[in-house]
Specification:
The complex is a heterotetramer of chains A (320), B (751), C (520) and D (113).
Chain A: H1 7-24, H2 33-55, H3 62-80, H4 84-104, H5 108-132, H6 147-150, H7 155-176, H8 188-207, E1 214-219, E2 222-226, H9 238-241, E3 248-250, H10 261-272, H11 274-295, H12 297-318
Antiparallel strand pairs in A: 1-2, 2-3
Helix pairs in contact in A: 1-2, 1-7, 2-3, 3-4, 4-5, 8-10
Chain C: H1 2-6, H2 9-24, H3 30-52, H4 64-83, H5 91-96, H6 108-126, H7 131-151, H8 156-187, H9 192-202, H10 206-223, H11 231-238, H12 241-264, H13 275-297, H14 302-323, H15 334-358, E1 359-360, H16 374-377, H17 380-383, H18 385-399, H19 405-419, H20 423-448, E2 460-461, H21 465-480, H22 485-505, H23 510-519
Antiparallel strand pairs in C: 1-2
Helix pairs in contact in C: 2-3, 2-6, 3-4, 3-6, 4-6, 4-12, 4-15, 4-21, 4-22, 6-7, 6-12, 7-8, 7-12, 8-9, 8-10, 8-11, 10-12, 10-13, 11-12, 11-14, 12-14, 12-15, 13-14, 13-20, 14-15, 14-19, 14-20, 15-18, 15-19, 15-21, 15-22, 18-20, 18-21
Chain D: H1 3-7, H2 14-37, H3 41-66, H4 70-100
Helix pairs in contact in D: 2-3, 3-4
Classes of the chains: A mainly alpha (320), B mainly alpha (751), C mainly alpha (520), D mainly alpha (113).
């Protein structure tokens, strides 16, 4: 653990953070939320300092710190804000800064997917429901805050539990990285598929690979090319004539051949987890059905009442 | 079908039993033999389905009859395939599926193997032939007999009935002692359920409870026997077991002769057999078991289940012979003889004909045990075989009478039944049964009883202590048997025609054996009228028959079954003349099984040697017994004729009654079953009760306190934990979070 | 892809049935809507047939498919018998009478669809070879059950149960998801066998342990093990009894399959599990048994007793998980013991819960009360012998009475625990079995020996035959299945036999290193 | 440096990874604290979403460290499940709100013991 963090600072940061969060949660009586937020921020700073000091040149850039502070700060505000709508909006902020962190981690696709799906779709649903399920403001009280939203329940105990979890978890996480992790490396299959498709046009352009030829695999800096049977060539393609079908040909791989993020994800997703996709589809279907079953009540009940009332009325009127 | 085709190999795959290869001389039998037990099980399940669907027809009876018939045919097929109609050569094991296989080491005796496999030899087949055959016939009989219960308990009855046959075939056919035990408990359970079949009647429930408790004592013996066998031999499978017993060594190769196991294993098994086969002192449950429906009495409590004890001893005979002093066998012989005598004397004084038959069963079982004790497994098995037929006949006749006369079983209230319209078949069948039971010359019962009687005098007293004394007791009993048998016959079936309906006539809630409603067609008696009459009826008071009651003559199914059984009882005698050197067909079957004994068998080898081993008043016992027992039987019948037929004018009045005064209180004591129940009450129940009162105080003070403490600890802990379940979502979440932290901390601390 | 489809035939059958049921359930005709239960039954049985023919799968326990899926479909069918009509009782009648349309109750087709979805999820757990798959399967198990609880009854307490179940379940899901993230981080792959290979090759670090422990704890929610057990009693009590029966089997089975797969990645090498994992499971097992049993002793509601006993049974089964496959012998194979126990528990549990649903009382025939408290059970054997005895048999079997099914199941757990050297834990198991007698015997004595309270409504037999059938079939199975002990035990130990070679055989130098020593 | 590494813009050092993991763990802890302290059902569920997000961040960081995309793919599925769960949870909340006119989780505490 000492390799990547100074334990003292880290635990101090956790404790300070815990105090800050405990203070930041709304309570009856004195509730110094702003001070709490500052203290919690200091705790986070200490924690990051504990890591950053040991990281030296490997430390993350300034954007990491920016997104972290915004993200965790928004998360803290989310759990302490008495108004559900604001809480949800702060959660969106957390999501946005998470997306920023994703970007720093070179996961562009996931960053944008996160924003579109989470911030754009799921959270908006939340907002709808919050608005639907909150008491409508009355004339006297325009600004109704429910009792249960205004105050936290057992803030201190909960904070202790949460930060104890954080402390143990962090110890294990940081300690777990002490020994170099087994680095799994890219999925060879995926890289190969991407490259064969990318290398083909490059070869065609540079070496005049005929369109009939197919690159079947790329390894390091050599590609295996397969020619169709009975293929005769012109002068320009002389280079390949010497090669027998299935033979490898060394070539210089240009940088733009590198697979793009979205290609990699797509291939990993479809190539590696096709059944996961199916199951996810089933789950979504089930969720849709479930949401319908649970939420369809009100409208139809009213119609049912109307229908019943209408039927009753009709019979009453129709009866002599 | 595909699914079934897949299930079968998945679950029933008859993989070679890895841990144990059956002994070389025990081949593998036909795998379809497994159908013999499984068909009744299937029938039972189907009856359960019928019960579910509330079937209100006789469908369950037909299912059971069909399945049991198929089971009988399968038994016969196994027999014929194995060399029938004679005995099978040697034994074979039909492997059903691996059942229990525990191994805690590789050495011998470190594995408990009990497969669901069948041990097929001629002893097994002998038993199974009459078990399945009689069960089929009796199920057919019951289909009519129980018809008043259609739509109520009918489904249940046949489900239990078929389940009984399954359990019985497990008992008889299992190739290991665990399967025997399974069957043993299974038949006990079915017997319990069927005795208590009329569970709304307190006496039936009490009888079921009595049977249950008394049988548990016997079962304790059996469990000890199985356990000791396993500890001694390291196996409970017959094939390797008999191999070792044959060599006279235990599981680790030490010689067994003279060891404590050689004495005690037989004694344990013997106790088990006494419980199941109603021998002294554990016989008390059997007469009470007559509370069950009569077909049950016929099948379970006369023909099959109660002979399980005989089977157990016969099956384990090699182990019984290991003991050079023959302790267990001597006890068996004496217990058998005394049981036979005691039960016969009680039977003489009873008035309930079904109870008489029950005591007679106990008495005849005593004969069988005496036979086993004096080293004639053949005689015992032969008597089991003949007894199964004629006793089933007798019970079913009693059942027919009971069915027809609204539960009337008192022999003082019935007379001349055989000559009433529609009762001819019953009368003839009854006569055949009585002649057999009385040992009338050339009946099956005569031959089988003779064989046992003769052997008592053949077997030297040096081998089985007091064997000839046993013989004399049994001879006396034979006379008594003939007397009480024909006492029933002369009083109930012949003589002036007279009857008085039983208490079921109108007593709807108090059904004895026989449900409240009579079958449709007998709706002529008005229920209210009948109840009125029943109120006037004093129990025991002699009333002329009259009112609206008409006896209800047996129908086709009952008559057919009685006819078949009567014929079979007669024909059973013929088996004595097949395979004559082996003392008949049954003897041949027994001799080709493990019940055939090697060491002491020399004197059974040739007829010439017999005379030198024992004699009956200087004569060859075998020859002498033909005459002696015939004479004794005739005398018994004659006495019965004298006392119960000659000059009898009514049902209740017989010359015997005049004689009773001369005998003083003895007949009354006999009628009170020699006060054995009271004796048990006094010797066992009362002291136990007193003791239990003493213990109760101790119990209250100390044990209860301890138990309460033991019970309080979890309750206290629970009360401590209960606040955690306060119903609040947040508390639960906090508990979960705290738990996660706790476990992470524990692990962090450990690693 | 196609080779993976081959192992998914039962799931595909279930999914097709689901689609059909969803469509049929929308039909205008009452008769067609009524058919949905039959269609569901047919689909479940088809899945059972297909499951028995499952080929070997992939991943760590590839031999498990046939046994596990057949068990799931089989017990699922029994549960379906109990559940059929649980939701839509009386609704159709009321609709026909022209009373208010109550959409929350008009859920015939949907209810069966949720059941099938959930069952599908349990089956998918058995074939999981990847963390993603496992995650999706576990979610597919639970999400429908949340709705099933909510719609199982129109009473408020069903909704309360749904809230607790859903929200705590989401927290549990988040926990194991985080655990999965750390596992992925430690191994660099989501494939379970890949993780096992990595662990075997380069050891297991604290990161991996954190991941394992969080995953195990998260999945503990599904099996209702301490510390994730809090919801159990409330949810089982609040949900309609048939749904409680389902909750006691399906998520538990899914959870144990998942746990077996997760724990297989570290494997049971020479000295058993790696110490941190062993300690985790040990603590959880001991606490689970004890907490479940002691809380059950205080209850008066049979449903709560069964709920806490369900907690305790999870604790028993964890002993098998700690023991692991041993050296492959049937006597020592803890994983086989778990698979066998799950089957037995499924059957006994259906018997006990179904008996509660067989008798109805209360004024409202549309939404009657099931048997609930111990007092309700009084004299059940006398008044309703069939139901009563089936219940008594099931409960005796749950108690582990010799010669009944539960005895054999527990015997295997005991023996595997002893073989693995977990003597203390086995003693705890024994003590807990004794404590369990306290409350099980209370149920039995209520049903058998006490006389029914004359003032109480005696109740009437449910018009739904399926429940009685399920009850009686389970009661009979408890008696008859011991006869098939050998084949079932062999099937269960075959189911995990190949997994053992995969988990242990891939250990570098494992067997090779041992052989020269053996030679010397 | 091979192409796949290039595609992700260089190696992610363990020291950097610890930072991301710390943030993810903190997010998880805050989510849990929120779940424990808030009584509004909707916010409670938002907190579980936050915990899911924490896992997502860990997945992405690990994926970057290992230079493969299984982590990213896992996050796609996490998003899917989160959406499905949210749909169900919100439907349930609406349903419950209709029955009791409150979103207070402590109101649902009839079953206990």
């Amino acid at each position: 653990m000492t390799q990547f963090a100074s334990p003292f600072l880290l635990y101090l940061g956790v404790i300070v953070g815990a105090v800050g969060v405990a203070l930041a949660l709304p309570r009856r009586g004195l509730s110094p939320q702003a001070i709490g937020a500052l203290v919690a921020g200091a705790g986070l700073g200490l924690g990051l300092l504990a890591l950053g000091l040991k990281a030296g040149e490997h430390g993350p850039g300034v954007y990491f710190y920016l997104f972290t502070f915004i993200g965790l700060g928004a998360a803290l505000r989310m759990i302490s804000h008495p108004r559900p709508v604001y809480a949800a909006l702060y959660f969106i902020l957390t999501i946005l800064s998470s997306a920023g962190l994703y970007l720093l981690l070179a996961a562009e696709f996931m960053a944008f997917a996160l924003i579109i799906i989470y911030a754009g779709a799921i959270l908006i649903t939340y907002l709808f429901v919050i608005m639907l399920a909150t008491q409508a403001p009355t004339a006297e009280e325009i600004d109704v805050l429910s009792e249960y939203d205004r105050y936290s329940r057992e803030p201190i105990l909960s904070t202790i539990a949460g930060f104890a979890l954080l402390a143990t978890l962090t110890s294990m996480l940081v300690g777990g990285l002490e020994k170099p992790l087994h680095r799994a490396g890219p999925d060879e299959r995926v890289a190969s598929v991407v490259l064969t498709r990318k290398v083909e046009p490059i070869l065609t352009e540079r070496y005049g690979l005929p369109p009939e030829a197919r690159v079947v695999s790329v390894e390091g800096s050599s590609a295996t090319v397969v020619f169709p049977q009975g293929w005769g060539g012109s002068e320009k393609i002389q280079l390949f004539r010497a090669l027998d079908p299935g033979e490898s040909m060394p070539f210089e791989l240009p940088e733009e051949a590198a697979p793009e993020n979205i290609e990699q994800i797509g291939l990993t997703l479809v190539g590696g987890h096709p059944l996961g996709l199916e199951v996810a589809g089933v789950i979504l279907l089930m969720a849709m059905l479930g949401a319908i079953v649970l939420a369809r009540k009100q409208i139809q009940e009213e119609e049912g009442r109307k229908m019943a009332a209408a039927r009753g009325g009709l019979t009453r009127e129709g009866a002599p | 079908m595909d699914a079934i085709a897949t299930i079968l190999p998945t679950f029933l795959a008859a993989e070679p039993a890895g841990a144990h290869a059956p002994g070389a001389q025990v081949g593998s039998g036909p795998p379809w033999a497994i159908l013999i037990p499984l068909l009744p099980l299937l029938a039972s399940a189907l009856c359960g389905v019928c019960a579910m669907l509330r079937v209100k027809s006789k469908a369950p009876a037909f299912i059971v009859v069909a399945m049991l018939g198929a089971s009988f045919l399968a038994t016969a097929a196994v027999w014929l395939q194995g060399g029938g109609p004679g005995p099978m050569a040697g034994a074979s094991v039909a492997h059903g599926w691996d059942w229990i296989q525990f191994a805690w080491g590789d050495g011998p005796g470190q594995a408990l193997i009990a497969n669901f496999s069948l041990y097929l030899d001629s002893l097994t087949l002998l038993w199974m032939l009459f078990v399945t055959g009689l069960a089929t016939l009796i199920a057919l009989y019951a289909s009519e007999y129980m018809s008043h219960d259609v739509g109520q308990g009918y489904n249940r009855f046949f489900a239990y009935f078929a389940l009984f046959v399954f359990a019985m075939s497990c008992l008889v056919m299992g190739d290991n002692l665990l399967m025997l035990f399974l069957g043993w408990e299974g038949v006990g359970l079915c017997s319990y359920l069927l005795i208590g079949y009329f569970y709304k009647k307190p006496s039936a429930v009490a009888a079921a409870k009595k049977a249950f408790i008394v049988n548990r004592i016997g079962d304790l013996g059996l469990v000890l026997g199985v356990f000791t066998t396993f500890v001694t031999f390291g196996t409970i499978e017959y094939a390797p077991l008999f191999e070792m017993v044959g060599a006279g060594v235990d599981g680790s190769g030490h010689a067994l002769h003279g060891s404590w196991q050689a004495t005690w294993i037989p004694i344990f098994f013997m106790i088990g057999a006494f419980g199941k086969s109603a021998q002294l002192p554990l016989y008390v449950w059997l007469p009470d078991a007559m509370e069950g429906p009569t077909p049950v009495s016929a099948l379970i409590h006369a023909a099959t289940m109660v002979t399980a004890g005989v089977y157990l001893i016969a099956r384990m005979y090699p182990i019984f012979l290991l003991d050079d002093a023959h302790t267990a066998l001597t006890i068996v012989a004496w217990t058998g003889a005394l049981t036979a005598l005691l039960a016969a004397t009680i039977g003489m004084a009873q008035f309930d004909i079904k109870r008489i038959m029950a005591y007679s069963t106990v008495s005849q079982l005593g004969y069988m045990f005496a036979g086993l004790g004096v080293l004639t497994t053949t005689g015992a098995a032969f008597h089991v075989f003949t007894h199964a037929f004629f006793k089933a006949t007798l019970f079913l006749c009693c059942g027919a009478v009971m069915h027809g006369f609204a539960g009337q079983l008192d022999l003082r209230k019935l007379s001349g039944v055989a000559f009433m319209k529609g009762w001819g078949v019953v009368g003839v069948a009854m006569l055949v049964g009585c002649l057999n039971l009385a040992g009338f010359p050339f009946t099956a019962g005569y031959f089988s009883k003779d064989m046992i009687l003769a052997e008592t005098f053949v077997t030297p007293g040096s081998v089985i202590g007091g064997a000839s004394m046993v013989g004399w007791i049994l001879l006396l009993t034979a006379g008594l048997t003939a007397y009480y048998t024909f006492r029933v016959f002369f009083r109930v079936f012949v003589g002036p025609q007279m009857y008085e309906p039983g208490e079921e006539h109108g007593h709807a809630p108090h059904r004895h054996d026989h449900g409240p409603g009579h079958p449709p067609g007998h709706g002529e008696h008005d229920l209210a009228d009948a109840r009125d009459q029943a109120q006037k009826d004093e129990p025991g008071g002699a009333h002329p028959h009259g009112h609206d009651f008409h006896p209800h003559a047996p129908g086709l199914a009952i008559n057919a079954v009685l006819a078949i059984l009567a014929v079979a009882s007669v024909l059973a005698a013929l088996t004595y003349f097949i395979h004559k050197p082996d003392h008949g067909w049954v003897g041949a079957m027994v001799h080709h099984s493990t019940a055939h004994f090697g060491g002491l068998d020399a004197h059974h080898g040739d007829e010439a040697a017999h005379a030198s081993h024992g004699s009956f008043l200087g004569l060859d016992p075998h020859k002498a017994m033909y005459y002696v027992s015939a004479v004794i039987g005739m005398v018994g019948i004659f006495v019965a004729w004298l006392l119960h037929y000659r000059g009898r004018t009514g049902a209740a009045v017989a010359p015997a009654d005049r004689l009773l005064g001369a005998l003083g209180p003895i007949p009354r004591w006999a009628q009170q079953k020699w006060f054995v129940d009271e004796l048990y009450d006094f010797v066992i129940v009362k002291p136990l009760w007193a003791l239990s009162n003493v213990f109760h105080v101790i119990d209250k003070l100390i044990v209860d306190g301890l138990v309460n403490l033991a019970g309080l600890t979890p309750r206290g802990l629970g009360a401590g934990l209960r606040p955690s379940q306060n119903g609040l979502l947040h508390s639960y979440a906090a508990g979960m979070a705290g738990g996660i932290v706790f476990i992470l901390l524990v692990v962090w601390a450990v690693s | 892809m196609t080779e993976k489809l081959a192992i998914l035939h039962p799931e595909i059958a279930l999914f097709i049935t689901t689609c059909v049921v969803m469509i049929v359930g929308l039909s205008r005709s009452v008769g067609a809507r009524r058919a949905s239960a039959w269609i569901t039954a047919a689909g479940t049985l088809t899945a059972l047939g297909l499951a028995l023919r499952s080929p070997e799968g992939f991943g760590l326990l590839p031999g498990m498919l046939a046994y596990a899926k057949a068990m799931i479909a089989g017990v699922g069918f029994l549960l379906l018998l109990v559940m059929a009509g649980a939701v839509d009782r009386g609704y159709e009648a009321r609709l026909l009478r022209g009373e208010t349309f109550d959409p929350i109750r008009a859920t015939r087709g949907e209810f069966y669809a949720f059941f099938l979805f959930s069952l599908m999820g349990v089956m998918l757990c058995a074939g999981a070879d990847d963390l993603i798959w496992l995650f999706l399967a576990l979610e597919l198990v639970s999400l429908p059950t949340y709705i099933m609880v909510a719609i199982s009854s129109s009473r408020l307490r069903a909704q309360e149960a749904a809230v607790k179940y859903f929200f705590l379940g989401a927290m549990g899901a988040a926990t194991f998801l985080y655990g999965f993230a750390l596992l992925y981080g430690a191994a660099g792959t989501t494939s379970l066998s890949g993780i096992a290979t990595t662990f075997a090759a380069s050891g297991i670090g604290p990161l991996a342990y954190a991941g394992l422990i969080l995953s195990i704890l998260g999945v503990c929610f599904k099996i209702a093990a301490v510390p994730m057990h809090f919801y159990t009693a409330d949810v089982y009590e609040g949900a309609a009894t048939p749904v409680s029966a389902y909750l006691a089997f399906a998520p538990k089975t899914a959870g144990f399959l998942a746990l077996m797969l997760i724990v297989s990645t570290v494997g049971w090498h020479d000295g058993g599990l790696p110490e941190p994992v062993r300690v985790t499971l040990w603590v959880i097992a001991a606490l689970t048994m004890t907490v479940g049993n002691v809380l059950a002793t205080l209850q008066t509601s049979v449903k709560r007793i069964l709920a806490y006993s369900s907690v305790a049974h999870s604790g028993y089964m964890l002993v098998g998980l700690i023991a692991g496959p041993g050296d492959g012998g049937v006597f020592q194979n803890g994983l086989a013991a778990i698979l066998f126990y799950l089957l037995c528990y499924g059957v006994m549990n259906v018997g006990a819960f179904a008996a509660l649903t067989c008798i109805e009382r209360g004024q409202n025939p549309d939404d009657p009360n099931d048997l609930e408290t111990l007092d309700d059970l009084k004299g059940l054997c006398a008044t309703r012998p069939l139901v009563g005895w089936a219940m008594v048999l099931s409960v005796l079997s749950l108690l582990g009475m010799p010669v009944l099914l539960g005895f054999f199941a527990k015997l295997l757990l005991f023996s595997s625990g002893i073989a693995a050297g977990e003597i203390v834990l086995v003693v705890v198991l024994g003590l807990n079995s004794a404590i369990a007698a306290f409350y099980y015997l209370r149920i039995i004595s209520s049903a058998m020996f006490e006389t029914p309270d004359a003032r109480r409504d005696g109740g009437r037999l449910t018009p739904m035959r399926g429940r009685v059938l399920a009850c009686v079939v389970s009661g009979a199975a408890v008696l008859v299945l011991p006869l098939l002990f050998g084949p079932l035990q062999r099937a269960s130990s075959r189911a995990v036999s190949t997994g053992q070679s995969a988990a242990i055989g891939e250990r570098p130098g494992g067997t090779q290193a041992a052989s020269p020593e053996a030679g010397r | 440096m091979d192409l796949a590494t290039l595609a992700q813009g260089g190696l992610l050092h363990q020291a950097t990874l610890t930072h991301y993991l710390f943030v993810s763990a903190a997010m998880f802890a805050i989510g849990m604290i929120g779940f424990l302290t808030r009584r509004n059902l909707i916010i409670m569920f938002l907190c579980t979403e936050l915990m899911f997000q924490a896992a997502g961040l860990a997945f992405i960081a690990f994926g970057r460290h290992h230079l493969n995309f299984s982590g990213d793919v896992f996050v796609i599925f996490v998003l899917t499940i989160a959406a499905a769960e949210a749909a169900l949870a919100l439907a349930l909340v609406v349903y419950l709100f209709r029955r009791k006119e409150t979103l207070d989780a402590s109101e649902w505490a009839e079953l206990r013991g």
